[in-house]
Amino acid sequence: MRLKIYLSLTLLAGILSFAQVKKEEKTTFNQELATSLGADKYGMKAYTMVMLTTGSAKVDDKAKMGELMKGHLANIGKLADEGKIIVAGPFLEKNKENYRGMFIFNTKSKEEAEQWVKTDPAVQAGVFGYEIFPWYGSAALPLYLKHHKEISKENP
Predict the structure, then answer these.
(1) Are 21 and 44 within one domain?
(2) Of the candidates 111, 113, 73, 71, which has an alpha carbon nearest to the alpha carbon of residue 89?
(3) N or C: which end of the chain has fewer CB within 10 A?
């Protein structure tokens, strides 16, 4: 019985000290960083989201499709290196909207995002179509890419 009480008190003390550390870790507002990221007073900003859909073209040649996908991934990397695309990835399950993947572009201009998505070889070939939406999210979102490179052993 004493052991259970001791363990319970130890656990409670650990939780309370963790909560106190978390409370003390609250960071202060960084105006320079907020300005550099284009953040509004909430730390947010406008982006443009592109939902890739199943396109009208059917490519049965596996080698051709492989080349298109290789170009698709290379284009994503190029746009990321240029700071234009900050999120990209496929959906893991089929869905009724036929969404295949998504991009979040670092622009609030739908026209600019459309120019960028049209540089994708798979879009050009009609393998993917797309829908464009304005989106509002954390202005710090582009910062994750730097850390992604630190945690990925391989690139597709």
Answers:
(1) no
(2) 73
(3) N
User: Taking the CA of residue 43 as centre, how many other CA atoms within 13 Å lie in the half-sphere pointing to its CB?
Assistant: 8
- What is the DSSP secondary structure assignment for residue 41, as one 8-state letter? T
**Domain tally, the chain:** 2
- pTM here is 0.77
Q: For 52-108, how does the pLDDT look when each residue is reduced to its tens digit (9 = 90+)?
A: 999 999 999 999 999 999 999 999 999 999 999 999 999 999 898 899 999 999 999
**Residue 8 corresponds to which amino acid?**
S
Which residue has better confidence, 115 or 147? 115
- 140-154 CB burial, b ≥16 within 10 A, e <16: ebbeeeeeeeeeeee
One domain, residues 16 and 71: no
> How far is residue 58 from each of residues 16, 96, 131, measured CA to CA in Å?
59, 19, 19
Structure tokens at 8: 């319970």
Domain encompassing residue 42: 35-151
Shared domain check, 116 and 86: yes
135 and 45 in contact (C-beta within 8 Å)?
no
Query: How many C-beta atoms lie closer than 10 Å to residue 51's C-beta?
Result: 18
**Inter-CA distances, 96 with 53, 55, 110, 131, Å:** 11, 14, 24, 15
